[in-house]
Amino acid sequence: MNKYWSETIKGIAPYVPGEQPRAGRLVKLNTNENPYPPSPEVLEAMKAAVTDKLRLYPDPNCSRLRETASRHYGVPAEQIFAGNGSDEILAFCFKAFFDPGDTILFPDITYNFYEVYGELFGVSYRTVPLTESFEVPIEGFFTDNDGVILANPNAPTGKTISLEDIEFLIKRNRQAVVIVDEAYVDFGGESSIGLIPKYDNLLVIRTFSKSRSLAGLRIGLALGQRNLIEALIRVRDCINCFTVDWIAQAGAIASLEDTKTFTHYIGRIAATRSRMTEHLRESGFHVIDSSANFLMMSHPVIRAKALYEALRERNIFVRFFPKPRIDNYLRVTIGTDEEMDIFYDALMDIVMATNRLLPESEQTPNPGD
Ligand SMILES: *Cc1c(COP(=O)(O)O)cnc(C)c1O
């Protein structure tokens, strides 16, 4: 804390990303990165973009990228906004659609950045509690509000909201913007993009960080009718007109064009996800059905914090959120099959070692079988 800081910055608790450990051999399943490499065509396109042209500012409107995205998503290019990762676009949304004193709604368990942006931009929020089984109760959002943000699939639960529910909410909420953050939709669930022509209060946010293996490149898109896109452009042009550099624009275009690599790795992650879910359940874990590239799990006896720490000692990094309602869960990113086997074997070791210390009545039934 420092006397020169603004009151906002003194008071804020910034978002805490998962650790980026530097140790050599480790299994990193804590930030929902994709374990597979980006398409080789992306790397080629980016190398080809390293030329004298870097002397020039990049195209602020990302025209070629938006035209490619337009063909890919079936949405006119003028209804697409490209930004430096979807977090940046979400931050722009808070300035574009909400005023200080407004009250927006999002679930009590969801992506933590929504709360952080609310604090930073002075936008009030009310959280709507998920049900016992972590479903989004859509009626909970049918109350006065100046905006709604939903992650679909939700994070860190991996649960989806049906398209019917989303549309119902958009219809009931025509006075304000409904933002649907589809960071994980490529791994499962239904996209709301098809609803854009019908509703001028729907904004869909996408990222290249998870399903396209490009977290390091920083590319996100917003899709919505022109009224919403224009507001985002205004905010951007009040902060930094050149948010997406030439190299990133070239890489993002190539990523959208290479559907084959994309589909292949998405399929692998989905297969690993179902295999792991099944194994963990057989070993007594409670695992939430996930439509994303991570699993949310808890053990009937051993606390999540203890598992998290024991895994960490073995250089296996997963995510643990010391927050109400989810502080007995681990969120584990789906890695390669090899990484998941290392994780699973370590977990079984930890469960068995802990079991030996417990009275028989409290032991886990057939750990590791
Ligand atoms: C990872 C994630 C993002 C951020 O994506 P970037 O494009 O890397 O900024 C946004 N929303 C949710 C729900 C995420 O999990």
TrEMBL record:
Pathway membership, UniProt: Amino-acid biosynthesis; L-histidine biosynthesis; L-histidine from 5-phospho-alpha-D-ribose 1-diphosphate: step 7/9
Protein name, entry field: Histidinol-phosphate aminotransferase
The family database entries (NCBIfam families) matched by this protein are listed as: hisC
Molecular function (Gene Ontology), one example: histidinol-phosphate transaminase activity
EC no.? 2.6.1.9
For the modification N6-(pyridoxal phosphate)lysine, the affected residues are K210
Keywords on record: Amino-acid biosynthesis, Aminotransferase, Histidine biosynthesis, Pyridoxal phosphate, Transferase
What subunit structure does UniProt give? Homodimer.
Q: What class of enzyme is it?
A: transferase
Q: Which coenzyme or cofactor does it need?
A: pyridoxal 5'-phosphate
Q: Which species?
A: Paenibacillus rhizophilus
Q: Which intervals hold domain Aminotransferase class I/classII large? A: 26-347
Q: Kindly give the Pfam families that the UniProt entry links to this protein.
A: Aminotran_1_2
The entry assigns this protein to a family as follows: Belongs to the class-II pyridoxal-phosphate-dependent aminotransferase family. Histidinol-phosphate aminotransferase subfamily.
Catalytic activity, as annotated: L-histidinol phosphate + 2-oxoglutarate = 3-(imidazol-4-yl)-2-oxopropyl phosphate + L-glutamate
Its GO biological process annotations read: L-histidine biosynthetic process
